[in-house]
Amino acid sequence: METIEKNIQQVFGAQGLDVKTRGDKAIWAIIILLSICGLLVVYSATNSLAYKLHKGNTWVFLFRQFSVVAVGIVIVYFAHLVNYTIYSRWARFLFVIAIILLIYTLFFGTSLNEANRWIRLPLLNFTVQTSDLAKLALFMYLSRLLSKKQEVIKDFKKGFIPLMLPIVIICGLIAPDNLSTALLTGATGMLLLFIGRVSMKHLLLVVAVGAFFIGTLVFLARAYYDEANGRSKELPAALSIKRVSTWIKRVQDFMYAKNDEAPYQVQQAKIAVAKGGFFGLGPGNSEQRNFLPHPYSDFIYAIILEEYGLLGGTFIVFIYMIFLFRAIKIFRKCGYAFGAFLSIALSFTLVIQAMANMAVNVGLFPVTGVTLPLVSMGGSSIIFTSIAIGIILSVGRNVEVIEEEAENKNGSVA
């Protein structure tokens, strides 16, 4: 019995298996609110598609989304009960597993839209986007390294290189089939290193390398575009490999395409935004869901703007900002470096992904394949998002317990 109790305390903390819901109450409310918003918009966005594919049954995708969301909330609950220090011990192992899975996905993954981003789990017939697991593993590992290297954090060889190498490896393996996710993950990693007090001159060096890469992509997009005829030139064989031609084409579309020349999904998203106006057409009244590709995932924010208008779209942005603010509050209160870094890293990656999705939907960024966390229809993306939020709440739960113990101690002393 003592051994069992000891193991429980290791996993769930010194307070043992405390099944009460703890953590930041505002974040719990945000989870529920975004999940409800997601169910409403996914039902609307998939209504016509479900009617066509399932002989008039318009509820199929709603039930599927509800099931995934329900599982996600259960995962959040149990993940928030776990003592977050456990993740520090498993960080290195998960990082290695993530690298192996990314390499496997690169060569043997399930191909969709000319990109290998998923692997299919045997027996379960369930596809998983391995980059989701890789991001989680990367930020666990980075948080562990940052917490252990604060004394040598300004040193290039002992501090910067060991921290930068994991980011380069993970982003380098994600980039060939998912450049947008690699760039967003890299940006989040750099932000975490900045918060972790890595030398600014070392960070600027990486920024310069990134700027050179993006500048090269823009240069190629300009060099191989015929402005007179308004179309792309034929790319040499060296630039036609893998997804390089797709990257160049998307930059060209973003830079040069006029309203009537823009990619089809961009045109339809703009129409949806314009129709929404300030107050929107109302729940379930979207017209562009019948024309917009992936209105339930990549372009779900355009459907939100069409049905709920600028008012509803601004509300969604506000919710994500509140989530970030509450996560920063947990970061500032956490007395342990690993938990503080982990909570802020996971919150930043979710909010940055959300901002990128919304920016694409309103035409501020080139088209990417990132979804809106907790709102877009999905399976593995919601599962890994739920794990990330559960970990953030686990850190908040630990902060609450420590504060309560301090208050009880002060009360007993008084």
Explain this structure to me?
This protein has a domain at 22-81 and 257-401. 41% of the residues are buried. A hairpin with a 4-residue loop joins β2 (115-121) and β3 (126-129). The strands form 2 sheets. A 3-stranded antiparallel β-sheet has the order 1-2-3. A two-stranded antiparallel ribbon has the order 4-5. Mean pLDDT is 86; it is low at 1-10. Helix content is 69%, strand content 4%. It is globular. The chain has helices at 2-12, 25-53, 60-81, 85-108, 130-148, 156-174, 179-195, 200-223, 244-256, 264-276, 300-333, 337-361, 380-413; strands spanning 110-112, 115-121, 126-129, 225-226, 231-232. By secondary structure, the chain is mostly helical.
Percent strand equals under 5%
In one word, what is the shape? Answer: globular
Tally the helices: what do you get? 13
The largest pleated sheet is described as: 3 strands, antiparallel
List the helices and strands and how they pair.
Blueprint: H1 2-12, H2 25-53, H3 60-81, H4 85-108, E1 110-112, E2 115-121, E3 126-129, H5 130-148, H6 156-174, H7 179-195, H8 200-223, E4 225-226, E5 231-232, H9 244-256, H10 264-276, H11 300-333, H12 337-361, H13 380-413
Antiparallel strand pairs: 1-2, 2-3, 4-5
Helix pairs in contact: 2-3, 2-11, 3-13, 4-5, 4-6, 5-6, 5-7, 5-12, 6-7, 7-12, 8-9, 10-11, 11-12, 11-13, 12-13
